[in-house]
Design brief:
alpha/beta, seven-stranded mixed sheet, 13 helices, 13 strands, binds NADP nicotinamide-adenine-dinucleotide phosphate
């Protein structure tokens, strides 16, 4: 399977390493070998290697900090030119999130599908803003669009629903989807100020320099949009997700009035009701019997409300670029298995 990537940062590097580490296992269990035929980033430009370089070669070349791999030629110019010039089976869209419109990643994915490439992305923007359009284009072209790592790193959600919950109706979900907010609330409940807790979140690498999107619920709203649209057939936009009583001031106030035995968390919830889907993010003072009250630190969780298995809760371990890369590998294996069934 020939891979080309737009964006090669933390996740791209973790993916190159993981594919190199798992090369033997992927080959023996799935008869699957990978080569990289090109990569493009915003500032480093890009390269195309028509013959492909192995995962091990790519992982050890050090690009984009070092030189582009040998056997490749440099490419300048736009993503669309790169996508058509680069011979690949799958385009990986691993660029930075644009939380306002999902661009230019939507254009990258559209161009890849028009050029006949399957697409795997971990970028929330295009799936939150254009899932239905992109999925329709992929279906029309007979191509795959997969995005396991857009919600809770590489935790199996979409792949699990697709492969292990046949004929199941999902009528809602509830969970902790923003690590920064819940990590900060955790430290505040242990007596830290919000400022100190935020600084600690930055130190361990979960919080961005600008934490507004986390504390004010935008990050959770984007993820709720993806879950509602993909799993429940909704047509929400992130702005449709209600963000109720959030932000730094509300966190301080709610923490001060928290009753004994309760735990304060930023909770996302979604329900399908009388043909419409409603989703919201808010601070909740959880009782001890609530499964979400027992999560701590940066832990995320998601409960799916299903008509076959009742409430199904997924609580992953720690998340980060390595788990995000794993979700991409799961998507790639799934594409390869579907191609095998077709041939
Ligand atoms: N890190 C995680 O654990 C994690 C978890 C889940 C989802 N994600 C999502 O995965 C994506 C990648 O995350 P990351 O941590 O790898 O980010 P990162 O380290 O900031 O890397 C982003 C990469 O995208 C490139 N890029 C940005 N805009 C571009 C454009 N218009 N054209 C071409 N290249 C462009 C950057 O190039 P330059 O460096 O040259 O600017 C860089 O190579 C993001 O959407 C993120 O939200 C990340």
């Amino acid at each position: 399977m020939r891979l080309a990537t737009i964006g090669f940062g933390n996740v791209g590097r973790a993916l190159a390493i993981l594919l190199a580490q798992k090369a033997d296992e992927l080959k023996s269990r799935y008869q699957l070998t990978f080569s990289w035929t090109g990569a493009l980033t915003r500032t480093a430009g890009g390269w195309v290697a028509p013959q492909g370089i192995t995962a091990l070669e790519f992982a050890s070349e050090g690009w984009p900090a070092g030189a582009a791999p040998r056997q490749s030629w440099p490419i300048r110019g736009h993503a669309a030119e790169f996508i058509t010039a680069c011979p690949a089976d799958v385009l990986l869209e691993l660029t930075t999130l644009d939380p306002v419109a999902g661009q230019p990643a939507i254009d990258h994915i559209r161009a890849a599908l028009w050029a006949g490439r399957h697409v795997v992305t971990c970028n929330k923007g295009p799936i939150a803003y254009a899932y239905h359009q992109l999925q329709a284009l992929a279906a029309e072209k007979g191509l795959a669009l997969r995005f396991e790592s857009t919600v809770i790193d590489g935790t199996p959600i979409f792949n699990m629903v697709e492969s292990s919950l046949p004929a199941t109706k999902i009528s809602g979900f509830r969970g902790l989807l923003n690590s920064t907010s819940n990590y900060v609330l955790d430290l505040m409940s242990a007596g830290e100020t919000l400022e100190v807790a935020l600084e600690a979140a930055r130190r361990i690498g979960v919080a961005e320099a600008d934490t507004g999107s986390d504390l004010e619920g935008w990050d959770a709203a984007v993820k709720a949009t993806i879950l509602a649209n993909v799993l429940m057939g909704a047509t929400l936009r992130p702005a449709d997700v209600e963000r109720l009583g959030l932000g730094a001031e509300a966190m301080r106030r709610e923490m001060n009035r928290l009753r004994r035995g309760r735990t304060l968390k930023q909770v996302v919830e979604c329900i399908a009701d009388a043909g419409s889907v409603r989703a919201w993010v808010r601070l909740e003072a959880l009782r001890a019997e609530d499964v979400l009250a027992h999560l701590s630190g940066t832990q995320s969780a998601l409960t799916l409300r299903t008509d076959t298995m009742g409430d199904l809760t997924i609580i992953p371990g720690a998340g980060g670029p390595e788990q995000t890369a794993f979700g991409i590998v799961a998507d790639l294996v799934s594409i390869a298995q579907k191609l095998d069934q077709v041939h």
